[in-house]
């Protein structure tokens, strides 16, 4: 099998409910990914960094993603990311010319609330990047999977669409 | 997006519990796939045929899969199939030289019991076949995705492994 | 069977995630209770009123609960209520001397996130009020079920305890 | 709180899917009850015995249930039991004149497949037996809760009804 590195940066995918505060918080330990890994009987390597809502991501955070990818040995990378600025990080990654196959994914609903959508997004990214034979930066959200320039979030509808 | 046809033939993926008889039965309407489609906000085309445990599949059943693929307009095909004879159907499909990109997937646990594993298998197949640029017959099970000759079921362990 | 009226006033029990806004909202239609009813094969009567976080409940809201109970024909009442002011509403109901068997319940986690806790709280209230042979106002939360004066929320721990 | 002993004897409630054999088996460790206990934040005492489909229960098995209750200090007992012979065990328990408050419950769907129905049955039994002030043998299934003579399984419909 192709070696794949999963970089988990936070976003809705990782939100969990805190019964004491009544708020949704980003789980820094990536338990959603751990549960997929366990229930899927698959062993993939995960690095948890940043743990932010993507609206709160800074230039430094994006630089850290680039640096993490540069340091990695894997040629195939999945980034779990918030949906609101997924396009922005994708652009930064494309401009960094990392010479790898990189795919961004995430979820409109937290894994802890609707595990199907989050699992489907992550695993379709996993399948795509396994087969992918062209370096570049891709997005995989609700079945739309392509170069990051051709998939974008429709904020009114709450899902991703192909960009004309 | 690439057009993909999903051919659902039954197998563990589709088993559901009948509270009257206390037995697991194959759901002929493919409600598991319908639920993934709905929760994932994706629209994929599904044909339900055969609806059998793959141990009960006959030569005629496999001929029907071949025929269904030949008649279809789509160049990318996902087959949801029981795990016990997935290799056998894959071989029949390879020998039929269908000139398409075909991937078989399924589940060790019914979608109705462990929806994560079934969703993960199906969606990783979906991602792989979307990116795939070489005609052939592939298998996608618990994160192992490759030409059908290189992925096989380990019946003692209850999951799929890479074939040396 | 004893006739039971369920009055659903909102609270955490009914919160659902809105993927467009990224916020938890109170579902005014009580779909959590509908799902329990359907999956449990039980038919209970539900009235949805108020639909508020219990911290936002006003004097008028509590008067409406009292009025709704007074108008009802049922002698056994379950109130689904937010946990933060469950004690306050219980006191108002006790002082209204309604001459019925009334039990308040709710959830620390939304039904849409952890359906087990919400189902367990609701159904233990259902069982208790079915067997109850003494008029009064009760609370049922995480297995603590008694007169409302003897069960209260521990806000630090995030669950209900017996009051000494 | 009232002390309650839970005696788990098996039945559909405890069935889990074995992916190696493709069969449903009775989980001898009662993980369904453990999960309810954990997610409900409640601590109840459970004894796991027999672990059988209730159609396979023998006279000796029923004698063991009687003996287990006799030896227990608790005055309130919940028995998790298969649905097909729940009535038969209830009759044996009634004839044993155990001088306790005993309630039988179970599930039409395994907890591992539909956790709502199983949780609802168990927790309504829990609530009922907490409030119950009359010794006897009761059944709690899908919201029908009463003396065991007045609740029975409708095998065609697949749920419990009140006996006229």
Notable characteristics:
164 residues, alpha/beta, homotetramer, 4 helices
Q: How would you describe the shape of chain A? A: globular
Chain-averaged pLDDT of chain A: 96
Assembly state: homotetramer
User: How many β-strand stretches of chain A?
Assistant: 10
The ordered H/E elements of chain A are: EEEHEHEHEHEEEE
Describe the main β-sheet of chain A briefly: 6 strands, mixed
User: Which blocks of ≥5 consecutive residues of chain A have pLDDT under 50?
Assistant: none
- How many angstroms separate the termini of chain A? 34 Å
Which two chains share the most extensive interface? A-B, 37 and 37 residues
Query: Which strand-content bin applies to the residues of chain A?
Result: 25-35%
Radius of gyration of chain A: 15 Å
User: Strand arrangement, largest sheet of chain A?
Assistant: 4-1-5-6-7-8
- Helix amount of chain A: 25-40%
Number of helices of chain A: 4
Structural class of chain A: alpha/beta
């Amino acid at each position: 099998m192709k070696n794949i590195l999963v970089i988990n940066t936070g976003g809705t995918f990782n939100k969990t409910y805190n019964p004491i505060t009544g708020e949704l918080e980003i789980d820094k330990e990536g338990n959603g990914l751990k549960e997929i890994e366990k229930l899927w009987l698959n062993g993939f390597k995960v690095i948890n960094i940043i743990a932010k809502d993507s609206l709160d991501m800074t230039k430094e955070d994006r630089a850290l993603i680039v640096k993490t990818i540069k340091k990695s040995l894997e040629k195939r990378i999945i980034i779990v990311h918030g949906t609101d600025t997924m396009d922005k990080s994708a652009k930064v990654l494309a401009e960094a010319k990392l010479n790898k196959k990189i795919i961004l994914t995430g979820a409109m609903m937290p894994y802890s609330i609707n595990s199907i959508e989050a699992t489907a997004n992550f695993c379709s990214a996993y399948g795509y990047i396994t087969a992918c034979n062209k370096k570049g930066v891709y997005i995989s959200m609700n079945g739309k999977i392509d170069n990051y320039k051709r998939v974008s979030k429709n904020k009114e509808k709450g899902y991703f669409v192909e960009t004309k």
